[in-house]
Amino acid sequence: MSYTTVKEAGLVTADGRSLKSSLARAMFRKKVISIGLVLPLFAFIFFTFMLPIGDMLLRSVENDMVAEILPRSTEALEDWDETSGELPGEAAFEAMVLDLQEAKENRTNTKVGQRLNYERSGMSSLFRGSARKAQRIEEGPYKEKLIEADKDWANVATWQTIKMFSGPFTAGYFLSAIDAKPLPDGGIEFVDSQRAIYSKLFIRTVLLSTLITVLTLVLGFPVAYLIATQPARIGNLLIICVLLPFWTSLLVRTTSWIALLQQQGVLNDTFIFLGLISEDGRLAMIHNATGTVIAMTHILLPFMVLPLYSVMKTIPPSYMRAATSLGAHPWPAFWKVYFPNTVPGIGAGAILVFILAIGYYITPELVGGTDGTFISNRIAYNISVSLNWGLAAALGVILLGIVLAFYILYDKIVGIDNMKLG
Amino acid sequence: MKRFALTAAAAAMAAAAGGFAGNASADTELVIVSWGGAYSASQQNAYHDPYMKNNPEVSIVNDDSSSEAVAKLRAMNEAGNVTWDLVDVVAADAIRLCDEGLAKPIDHDAVLAPAPDGTPASEDFGDLIVSECFIPQIVYSTTWGYRHDMLDKEPTSVCDVFDLQNFPGKRSMEKNPINNMEWALICDGVDPANVYDVLGTREGVERALAKLDTIKDSVVWWTKGAQPPQLLADGEVVMASAYNGRLFAAIEEQKQPIKMLWDWQVFDLDGWIVPTGGDNEAEVMEYLKFATDTQRLADQAKYISYGPARKSSAPLVGDHAELGIPMGPHMPTDPENSKTTLLYNYEFWADNRDDIDERFQAWLLE
User: Fold this and answer.
1) Reduced to 3 states, what is the DSSP secondary structure of residue A301?
2) Which residues form the ABC transmembrane type-1 domain (chain A) (predicted)?
3) Which of residues 185-204 of A touch B (CB under 8 A)?
4) How far is B160 from chain A (nearest CA, A)?
5) SS3 annotation, A338-350
6) Domains of chain B
7) Which fold has domain A197-418?
8) CA gap B140, B266 in Å, rounded
9) What is the value of ipTM here, to two decimals?
10) Whole-number Å distance between alpha carbons of B358 and B221
């Protein structure tokens, strides 16, 4: 009997199948059951969370509106050299008049005007006004008549903007999100610092979030230590003290900070009563970055304390006793033995607080004033007020990128395996 | 595939929402969207309650989402599932919704009741119909309130806001360029008739910001309408720009030591739009006819100090329903209050808002 035949015959189970396929079948059945159990949740998350988010993020590059609403002009402008500094020819004007007439019928002229207004102010009224007038233009010369309808059509920059944003995809939103603008020749130009806001806000958001994370760690560590090392009765009481604010509405906590910190507030009144400051020297602790940091540190504190506590709870007190009994002073014993054991908790708490802080919206909006607001406040503005969803999506993608970058950095330095949430 | 994802998500949510809405006992449920607070309460008292009494088969559900109405309607429309029947929005939003095809054009004379003397609705509302989709309801204004007990001298002109010497203390302004830029230019010597021409230029924007710069360190910026009356009540600021109805509530209902400064109040309008794609069109039109007739608009003024948008309603404005004080003198349209007024320029802000806002936000960061 050769080796191959032995392998082919193999081991068989009672029903005559080969052991291997029988095993595979059993494993397969298990897999199907486990996938079946996870599937509803997965489908739920996919349809209500991932798909809409992906769809929203796509908007940061999507740009089919111009070509869809102005098809003839898009085509006519293809041959036009936008860097020549001259207006496009009669054909492009004719195409634009026809497009405008059709757009007016379909009530889409203001839509495309609004889209182009994000890139160049005045486009919105140009499209609203001249679509109405274009309906009365029946024959050429189209160029003359369209310019007569609105003199902005004689401006090369108007046509450059239309051509630049007639492609199916655009980098325009991302450029706006980093305070830049595309140029007709394909280059980009950074807007002057008088108009640059987003880069400043991104930097501020990251810096303040980092500061808040550090503060929650500094304040939370001793508290978690205390809770973990007290007898259960006192520990439970303390944990309630941590959880109680955690269960209170975010809005309530934010407003109570306003009452506490404002210039006519409780804290300032107390300082004056104690003679620490004079009536004219009331401290401005809210409606600025200070207010944002104080309120957010308080609000996010439980997210630091709880993971720290859950890790510290599992560190046997005998470690420290062993270290001191072997001759270490309390401080080196703590630093060399106890502290390294808490690193997974610090990691979990820090990453949780940082990611929550970087996307915070309502607290900075209410207490942030001018120098304590975050990038998310601008995203909200673009979603609900200016309706520039493309720009909001681009800002969101960048914010997501920053979070991922910090996550990778964290993984490189601390190692994500060291994270422990509970 | 284009908008597949949103459609799927919205369908899932609608199915969930439908599960709750299905139990309602009335035959028709109208979802009416408004601003919440005292404003929605005034509509409940003046329109909803009497209407439901007359039409027991209709039940009205309030939704307080008007501040995000444009964004939400756009999303609902893309998903092909409009769940709102009637929406209360400011005029600028109404124009925008109409432009985008998210609101239905209305034949005002066919849908709305004429005035008691037979004047057709379109004439009774007059110029306030700023868009073919818009049914005006009230005239409100953004104006100034001040703490008379905290200031040595009482301000008489909006330019006193920019005078830190004679009127020291913090002031609160809305964290957005609208209205602030206009006031700054007027107080910088620009003829009010030309404000928007000047503001339309780069130099004009810089000029307004330079004026605002003189008080920048003393400004607390607000973002929600409830904030300025609160800041005044707390004594955090000595003067604040605010909606006149909110100031009325603080002064007359909560008896705060605040007074009104009507100088260069900025008029704006608020009213109904009917979203396209809603289900209950016939019922909505019937409700609209009732809720915007002369008597009903005058009734709303019993509960809140916003002026009715119908000419024929003005003489019917009476006393406050609970306080019993005459409401006329508290209306922004009262001749005593409206000696100097500015009409919010919809077209200008539609074109320039994004651009000026960017510059304004950058200025705030400086």
Assistant:
1) helix
2) 202-410
3) 193-197, 200-201
4) 22
5) HHHHHHHHHHHHH
6) 8-139+269-328 (3.40.190.10), 141-267+330-365 (3.40.190.10)
7) MetI-like fold (1.10.3720)
8) 8
9) 0.83
10) 16
